[in-house]
Amino acid sequence: WDFLRQKHETKSMRDKYIASSCQLFFRRDPLKMVRGSMQYMYEQDGTEYLDCINNVAHVGHCHPHVVQAGFKQMRTLQTNNRYLHDHIVTLAERLCSTLPSQLCVCFFVNSGSEANDLAQRLALYYTKNRDGICLDHAYHGHVMSCIGISPYKFMHGGSEEKKPDHIHVVPTPDRYRGKYRDDQMSMSELTDAYVGEVQSACDSVAAAGRGVSFFISESMQSCGGQVIFPPGYLRRVYDIVRRSGGVCIADEVQTGFGRVGSKWWAFQLDDDQLVPDIVTIGKPMGNGHPISAVITTPAIAEAFRRGPDYFNTYGGNPVSCAIALAVLDVIEQDKLRENAVRVGEHLKRRLQEMQPRHPMMGDVRGAGMFLGIDMVLCRRTRQPAGQAAETVLWRLRSEHIIMSLDGPHENILKFKPPMCFSLANANQLCDTLDRIFTEVEADLAASAAAAAAATAVAATAATAAAAVAAAAAAAGKPDREKNGGCR
Ligand code: PMP
C-alpha cells in the first residue's frame, strides 16, 4: 500500500463508503494524517501538528518500544486466552499492583464499551439488582447497555435511544456551571446538594421496592467538559450507593494510566483511600491498539462465576497483552507520570496567569495532563462561549495545534495530549492561545460595539448590557455536530 490518494479523493471515497454518522474532526476541511511520532502527527503534505488531545496515543504516537513489542509477539504467536500464556498473567499482575489490593481480578476485553458493558453485568450478578445511577452528560460507550448510561448520547436531539427506566441520572457535580454553582453557595453546601441528589435517586429506587445495582462515573468527567468533582464527593456517594445495595464502578477509560500525574488512577486523586468495586480501563492501555480491561474484587468475580462461562475471542490475546505491557514499561521508564505533574502544573499555572488578561477564560481546571478551559462570554453570568471557542479551535489548527471542545455547551477547550508532551510544547501552546484569545476577544468586542450601535439606532437609550446580550446572541448556539464530536 505504498500509494497515497489525493486528499480530495480520500474524502470523496470516505463520503461514499463510510457511514456518515462516523464524523470527522474539522468536518468543513478535514485533516488527512499519514504518520505519527510521539506528540506529533503529520499530514500528507508533511505539515507537522502538535497533538494536544490524543489520550489514546498515551506514551506517544508509534512509540518504538510499543511497536516493537507488538511486532515481536505477532510473529511468535497470536491466539485466544484459552491457553496458558505468560503475557496475560504478567499484565494482570502489573495492573493490579497499581490498584488498591482489593481490586485483584481481571477480565480482558477490547474496548471501553465492552468493559463498561461487562461491568454492568458483574454488578447485576453480584447485587441481583438492575437499577443503575449515572451522571448527567456522561459517556460510557457505544453499545446499547452503555448508551443507556450515557446521557451525552441519549439526550441528543435525534436519538431513538431514550433513557431506560432502570437508569437514574443525577446532576454532574460541576461547581462552575452545574445545577449547584460556587457563585451561589459555598463548596460544602454544593457538595451536600450534589451528594443529596444521589441519595434521592437511591431513595426512589428503594421506595419502588428495589435495590441499587451500580453507580458509574468517571472520577473527572471528560465528555462533560473536564469537570473536577468537589472534594469528598465520590467518597460520600460510594457510601450511599453501597448502603443501597449497589456497587461503585469507576470508569478510568480516559483518565487512567497516570494521566493525572500524581496517581495512577483518577479515583485516587481526591482521596487515596477510596476503593471502587469495579474499575474499567481502556484507551491508553494499548497506545492505539484495542485492549481494555475490567478489574474487580474476588467476591464480585466469584458471583459472576454463577453465570455462563465468559469467553471473549480477542480479549487478553498475547499480542494485545504484549503491547499493554510495553505501555506500562514506557510509563515507568520515561517517567511519564512525573512528566504529567511537571508539564501539567506548568501549563495550568501559565493558563491561570493568562486568565486575568482574558475575559473569555472563565475557568481553568484539571490535573496533570487533563486540563480544561471553560470559555465564557461573560465572567459574571458564565454564559458559555460555544461559537467563540469554535473559532479558537480553528485558529489553533491554522497554527498546527490540535485541540478539541467538549461539555454540554461545546465551550470547554480540552487538553489531554500524549503524555510525552514537553515544557516547550506547553509554552508554545500558551503563547499561541494568548495571541488567539486576544484576537478573538477583539472580534467579540467589535461585534458587541456594532450590535450596540445598531441597538442605539433602533432605540437611542440602548444600554451596554443590551449590547453585550446582542453580541452573545450573535455568537450563536454551540453545535456538537459541527466539529465531529471527539473523545
Ligand atoms: N468510557 C469513556 C469515559 C470514554 O471516553 C469512552 C470512549 N470515548 C468509552 C468509555 C468507550 O470506549 P471505546 O470507544 O473504546 O468503546
Describe this structure in words.
Helices cover 39% and strands 16% of the residues. It is α/β, with parallel strands linked by helices. The strands form 4 sheets. It has a 7-stranded mixed sheet, sandwiched between helices. It starts with 6 loop residues before the first helix and ends in a 13-residue tail after the last helix. The C terminus is likely disordered. The structure holds 4'-deoxy-4'-aminopyridoxal-5'-phosphate (PMP). 4'-deoxy-4'-aminopyridoxal-5'-phosphate (PMP) binds next to helix 4.
Task: Describe the structure using short key phrases.
single chain, about 475 residues, alpha/beta, 7-stranded mixed beta sheet, 5-stranded antiparallel beta sheet, 14 helices, 18 strands, about 40% helix, disordered C terminus, binds 4'-deoxy-4'-aminopyridoxal-5'-phosphate, PyrdxlP-dep_Trfase, PyrdxlP-dep_Trfase_small, pyridoxal phosphate binding, pyridoxal phosphate
Brief digest:
The protein has 487 residues and is α/β, with parallel strands linked by helices.
